[in-house]
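Protocol step 4 of 5: obtain the predicted structure for the target chain.
Materials: sequence only (see below). No template structures provided, no constraints applied. The aim of this step is simply to have a reference model before the mutagenesis design in step 5. Sequence pasted as it appears in the construct record:
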Amino acid sequence: MGPGQGSGTVSLTDRKNEVTRVLIRRAAMAVLAQRGLRATIDEIAATAGISPRTVFRHYAGYDDLVADAIGAMSEELGAPIDGLPDPVADFYGWLWRLALEAQTRNAAVLGRAFWDFYNPPTDTSAAILTALAERRLRRAKWMDYIVETAWKHAGGTGAVPREVEEVFYLLFSAYATHPLATDFGHAPEQAATLTTNVLMALLESAVAKQRG
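Step 4 output (structure tokens):
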């Protein structure tokens, strides 16, 4: 038995294949963020610095690659946040940091792709539609945690009011990120402060209404 062939080991070829696959996936993410579902294999290959033929050695086809990239984008959007404040000790700081990460990641990871991700073309394949549906489920799980935690620490009890949930979902979405940046010229920190102030006022009003 030669080197790298034992049980539980990874061969040099496998490592190279994984490195190339990651390179292709990252290139696909970058092109999708710029071009949405109009991204092409040629554009992705050029961004990765490889040939289209190499792409097809690692992915069965365009749909397989794009679905994989959408999944990776979703994971990156919902990745843990280092140094996130404790909502008990610093509720405003916790909410502000979450808003900042949402603004930053929406712009850097999702980019212009959100238009197609929310409204895919009619000819979008089943594989890509499945990946988009999974992305929405992941985002809903992440947002539900944020909304429920915010509601609890703001003093609310029971189910979160629908209007509170809707505003959180909207302000943490790319639909809010893009106009705040392009129409009003807000840097992510400014957008995060505006978002946090609006949400704090909303929570205060909703809690007061609940208490009658």
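Step 4 remarks: The two ends are 76 Å apart (CA to CA). Residues 126-153 form the longest helix (28 residues).
Proceed to step 5.
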